[in-house]
Design brief:
Strand content: over 45%
Structural class: mainly beta
Shape: globular
Largest sheet: 7 strands, antiparallel
Number of helices: 3
Distance between the termini: 122 Å
Length: 402
């Protein structure tokens, strides 16, 4: 008997081929666009091509198109001085520029308070299709000398692009630098007499006087031998340890000297610090400090051992700076624990020579002028005030002088 079941459901091969062709089969197949999303944010688009083979099997190939990229802040730290009146924050688009992308920004209080220390700012940054140029927004800061304070800027709600890892950054506002040296009044210091640098004198006596806050005192160095220690004159004989810090009573304490950093670390901002640099032609020893700014108004900010350095035996802070840009200038500010500014921020150039590119200049500032005479020191900042983001300056021979 014939197999009726088999005959009933069998189809001719020619009919099967026709049906496959009518459904888009053959050597080429259909094409579909697929959009991939992550948490509702478009990251890329793919084109899928489906191919049918003669044996009836199919294969799919996904070809990615240009990505929308990510949006992120250019730095994790920004800084401004009160004298500038504002800080400019930069955001970037990376990894792709397909399609329009937007991101919102806002400010958040820290020790700096909106309405007092800065102006609350918010808005939206927009990149058009194919646009990968950096975008900026400006936050006004107080022009009053309110000391060092911080607040935060944040990115959020990115559309048609992903939000990068640096979605928030700290903004530091440093107090306004004074415009003149020794203007009188409490804390003003006037000195007369002479100082000797880098020499040794035997059998001489030097007499000088100093006036601090209206009180005059006169002192005389003892007759005998005064030994210069790497450019510094001290009363009596000074010895230097292998660590680079002086040990004799009444001599300079070196924070950084002869290529050795004698404090435990730094909280520098908007800058990269190299304590073993040789490219700056060190003033003493085999290394200096290279401060590479990663944005405007960066600073070298060392902190003391156990966050407490007794400054009572000392009356001045001395340090050497070497600029690499024609308009380099700096200010200095002391800060106590809790990131609370203490004393007065000062214009460094009022206490030494005008900067000359490629040359060291030595600056010596009375602690009384800084408002920290006889106090316990946590940290201080030598901050770029030129706004030369991306430039470099060098530091050497940083010490507290009796």
């Amino acid at each position: 008997m014939p197999n009726l079941h088999r005959a009933r459901f069998a189809l001719p091969a020619t009919l099967i081929a026709a049906l496959v062709a009518g459904c888009g089969g053959g050597s080429s197949g259909g094409t579909a666009n697929t959009t991939s999303t992550t948490s509702g944010t478009t990251t890329a688009t793919t084109t899928s091509t489906t191919t049918s083979t003669g044996s009836g099997s199919t294969s799919t190939t996904a070809t990615p198109t240009a990505a929308a990229g990510i949006v992120t802040l250019a730095n994790a730290n920004f800084a401004a001085t009160a004298s500038t009146g504002s800080v400019t924050v930069t955001a970037v688009r990376q990894g792709g520029s397909s399609g329009e992308a937007t991101v919102s920004y806002t400010t958040v209080n820290g020790t700096a308070i909106a309405g007092t220390d800065y102006t609350a700012t918010s808005g939206t940054l927009t990149w058009t299709d194919g646009d990968a140029a950096p975008k900026t927004f400006t936050v006004p800061v107080s022009i009053q000398d309110l000391g060092t304070k911080t607040f935060t800027v944040q990115l959020a709600h990115a559309t048609d692009a992903s939000l990068g890892t640096t979605a928030s950054a700290r903004v530091t506002i440093l107090g306004r630098a004074l415009t003149s040296k020794n203007t009188g009044g409490t804390g003003a210091t006037t000195s007369t007499g002479s100082s000797t640098t880098g020499t040794s004198t035997t059998g001489t006596s030097t007499t000088g006087s100093s006036t601090t806050s209206g009180t005059t005192s006169t002192g005389t160095t003892s007759t005998g031998t005064t030994s210069g220690t790497s450019g510094t004159t001290s009363t009596g004989t000074t010895s230097t340890t292998s660590s680079g810090s002086t040990t004799a009573s009444g001599s300079t304490f070196w924070v950084y000297y002869n290529g050795v950093f004698n404090w435990p670390g730094d909280y520098s901002y908007v800058a990269s610090i190299d304590y073993k640099d040789t490219s700056g032609a060190p003033l003493s020893g085999g290394a200096d400090i290279k401060v590479s700014l990663t944005g405007a108004y960066g600073a070298w900010q060392p902190y003391s051992t156990n966050w407490s350095f007794d400054s009572s035996p000392y009356t001045k802070l001395t340090f050497a700076l070497k600029p690499t840009s024609a308009n380099d200038r700096w200010q200095i500010q002391f800060i106590k624990v809790g990131d609370i500014p203490v004393g007065i921020s000062l214009n460094v150039l009022n206490y030494g020579p005008a900067p000359v590119v490629g040359q060291w200049g030595v600056y010596t500032i009375p602690l009384a002028d800084l408002g920290v005479l006889g106090t316990s020191i946590y940290k201080f900042a030598i901050q770029d005030e030129s706004g030369n983001g991306g430039s470099v300056f060098y530091v050497d021979n940083v010490g507290f002088v009796p």
